[in-house]
Amino acid sequence: MAAVRDVEIDPEGTFKYILVRLQRPDGGERRDVVRGTKAAEFHNHIFEKVNPEMQKLGYECKCLGGGKIDHNSKDKKIRVFGLSTGYGKADHSVTVEILKKVYTDYEITWSDDKK
Fold first, then answer.
1. Residue of 43, 45, 71, 92 with catalytic role
2. How far apart are CA 24 and CA 14, in angstroms?
3. Which of 7, 20, 43, 109 could form a disulfide with 66 if both were Cys (CB 3.0 to 4.6 A apart)?
4. 87 and 66 Cβ atoms separated by less than 8 Å
C-alpha cells in the first residue's frame, strides 16, 4: 500500500473530489485516499480513473462520498465542502485529516456549505 499516495489533487483551483477506500480482497489492509481534479466534470469520472489503477495493484475500491476542494497554494489554504450527487457527501473531517498528512504547513478547513 505504500506505493499508493494518500492524496492526488490539483495544485490550484476549485474542483470535485472523492474519498476512496482501498482494501485487499482478502479483507486485510485497508486505507482511505483522496483524489480530486478540475478535469472531472462529475465525481464518477474520478472514480472511473482511480478504480482500474488500484485494481491493477490488487486493491478493491469503494467510493465513500465526494465534495469539492478549494485549493489556494499561494496562501497555503485548502477548503473542503459540498457533496456528490451520485456518491453522497464524503466525511469531510476524514478528508481533512488525510490532507493534513501531505499539506503539513497548510490551513485546512471543512464545512457542509454547498458553495
1. 43
2. 32
3. 43
4. yes
Q: Phi, psi at residue 44, to the nearest 5°? A: -65, -20
**45 has catalytic annotation:** no
Q: The whole model's pTM is what? A: 0.95
19 burial type by CB count under 10 A (0-12 exposed, 13-18 middle, 19+ buried)? buried
CA atoms within 13 A on the CB side of 16: 19
Question: Three cell numbers at 91?
Answer: 466525511
pLDDT digits (tens, 9 = 90+) for 54-103: 999 999 999 999 999 999 999 999 999 999 999 999 999 999 999 999 99
Which among 70, 78, 114 has a CA at the least distance from the CA of 96?
A: 78
The arrangement of strands across the sheet holding 107-110 comes to 7-9, 30-37, 13-23, 60-72, 77-81, 107-110
